[in-house]
Amino acid sequence: MVCLNWKKVHTWVLLLFVAFSALPFIRGITDPRDVYAISELYASLGFPHLLGWVPVGGDPCGPPSWQGVECVISNITAIKLNGADLAGELPVDFGLFASIILVNLSNNQIGGSIPSNLPITLRSFFLSDNQFTGPIPENLSSLSQLTDLSLNDNNLTGSIPDAFEQLTSLINMDLSGNNLRGELPSSMGNLSSLTTLHLQNNQLTGLLDVLQDLPLIDLNIENNLFSGPIPDKLLNIPTFRRTGNPFNTTVLPSPPTSPPPLSPSDAPSPRSAHLLGPSSSPFPESRTNNKSNKTNNVTWIAIGGLVVIIILALGLCLFMSRCCKKKSLNEKTANTQNNFYQVEKASKGVHQSVEGSMRKTALLKQRSDHNIDMTRLDTNTESSPLPFPLLPAERVVSDPTFIIPLAQRGNASKVDSVKFYTIASLQQYTNSFSQENFVGKGMLGTVYKAQLPDGKVLAVKKLDKATSGHLSDREFFELVSSISKLKHSNIVELVGYCLEHGQRLLVYSYCSNGTLNEALHLDDQIQKKLSWNVRMRLALQAAKALEYLHEGCQPPIMHRNFKSSNVLLEDDLSVRVSDCGLAPLLSPGSMTQLQGSGYGAPELELGSYSYQSDVYSFGVVMLELLTGRKSHDRFRPRGEQYLVRWAFSRLHDIDALSRMVDPSLNGAYPSKSLSRVADIISLCIQPEPEFRPPMSEIVQKLESMIHRDR
Ligand SMILES: *[C@@H]1O[C@H](CO)[C@@H](O)[C@H](O)[C@H]1NC(C)=O
Ligand SMILES: *[C@@H]1O[C@H](CO)[C@@H](O)[C@H](O)[C@H]1NC(C)=O
Ligand SMILES: *[C@@H]1O[C@H](CO)[C@@H](O)[C@H](O)[C@H]1NC(C)=O
Ligand SMILES: *[C@@H]1O[C@H](CO)[C@@H](O)[C@H](O)[C@H]1NC(C)=O
Ligand SMILES: *[C@@H]1O[C@H](CO)[C@@H](O)[C@H](O)[C@H]1NC(C)=O
Ligand SMILES: CC(=O)N[C@H]1CO[C@H](CO)[C@@H](O)[C@@H]1O
Questions:
Q1: Number of compact structural domains in the chain
Q2: Signal peptide location in the record (predicted)?
């Protein structure tokens, strides 16, 4: 009753207050893909001070507006942060913006390389006057709607990529003031709308012929190393600056009809633009009409009204529940502390709570001891501001439970054996997830090589948003915890993880000899080392890994994605199976993928997967070892594309069998063990799952065979 009276007096004040405090919990109107992309950008830039920007979540298209961000309804269409004193780098997945049209980050101090993953909707892309290094990405070729490109005054190196074939809308391009070398690529001849081209102050060489049929009005090639002769047509360009090149312009009036002196026959690299597929963005292509801000504002009024209603409703709920639970609140202090994010946000204004969460981001990054006092952390208003710069030395937080306070603090499930890594440290170790550190892309994410300051090398698996997105932080944490318990000499060891800014990464020990798939099908050097005996040893070790998962773990674990590219090889060619325990991340579609790649057992067709399905996949890997063929090879004749289909009947015919053996073994194998191997494989790849033997039996068979061969 006291509650209600009090409410009558203060209802409106309070409702508004609570409503505003609750704002961060309402799912904003902004396209979640854009929210994710802009959070990535913000983290990668090192959380600079920008009005309205928040590190996690937030609603870039909703009020309060974010500095420099423009939207059309729920889509981010422009980011204009030129001259905003920005440092840091651009994120690797910069391409995730779904509908962005203009990016202007000119006049800043942004470094690193230009990401190769770019938003394919871009029309205007300005990065001039920064500190970008490295090459111009070839994936420029996918930006078919580009009209303006300015990359001038950076420290870009390498040659201009042959990536312009599709860029027929490009009108202005400025690449001046870099360290670009090499000749102009032939696809520049396809820039059929180009009117302004600035290439001055580089070290470009070769001829200018490729430019002669472009509709240029303004061409500047000063201070390069171009050779003559200059094509006649270029001399008609209204503004053509060309001083500071070695060609002797005065000889030009007599352009030769014969082929120019410098052989143009050294054709451009064969990697022409059309070979590059569509953008790597996991989301469907999207296009947006850039409507003016006015349209935007009108819509805002409508949306604003709706939002206010929702806020009020939510506020009322929050208020009621808080008010009536007031008494029991004191008894539940511990719980309240667990949920300190909510408590704080509900009791302070929006502005303060944003500041608070930023402050926490900063604090969470700092090395902490186990008994950190949450209450003090929460109320300490004079704590340090933002974590500038984002890429300092290693910051490993020893207690992962501290990082995810929402995941029931005090729960016994602590991951003591693995480290928590910050995004920033992993970014540093992987050279910002650069192409040079790229190891491979699997069904679940992308793997990068990480070099730690102490010389240690690790493998970082950056999980795709699509694969781990359905797990809550808590579920992800439990997953990490369960993987960390897998200890076997033939299973890749998990050493840490990262859970920050919506990013989930797993950090593993690194296997220097790549995958069995590469060893068999790609890497001649390692393939030479794969003698019969080595192959049998690899099979045995891989079998032991699966045996451990199926029969040694409690509860047992299905691999669900066993294939030669998940069989990693150490220095000494011993096996470590990867992706163990990651089955919860696999989408339903992964079964189809496994089948498409030739590893999937027939029962997958019926949607069923069992331990015996792993056994089948193991049989396929043994077949790969035996034949040296790929599990699925679309370049083979029809009947031979799927390895199992081709091999199945041949396994029982001794002549056919000996013809099946990998020719690169040059017949160097004991014929007795060949038929034993064929028997084991036949058992594994039987169509009926119930007839396939358990892994322990396969381990025994392999062991006794290897033993007899000695
Ligand atoms: C982009 O930024 C540059 C540098 O501040 C500025 O000169 C230019 O007008 C901007 N262009 C657009 C389209 O915003
Ligand atoms: C560009 O690279 C050169 C040579 O590596 C270096 O001297 C210069 O400082 C760099 N400039 C910027 C802006 O990073
Ligand atoms: C690009 O130019 C070459 C040479 O002129 C031409 O053969 C090719 O068809 C053009 N490609 C496109 C996509 O226009
Ligand atoms: C370039 O784009 C293609 C498809 O558009 C994508 O598959 C590839 O991963 C991209 N390259 C890089 C280095 O991001
Ligand atoms: C926003 O982008 C999506 C695709 O990303 C598109 O389907 C939709 O039409 C866009 N909305 C507006 C208002 O432009
Ligand atoms: C700039 C330059 O080197 N100009 C020379 C071009 O060639 C003519 C005749 O060969 C010379 O007289 C110029 O000095």
A1: 3
A2: 1-28
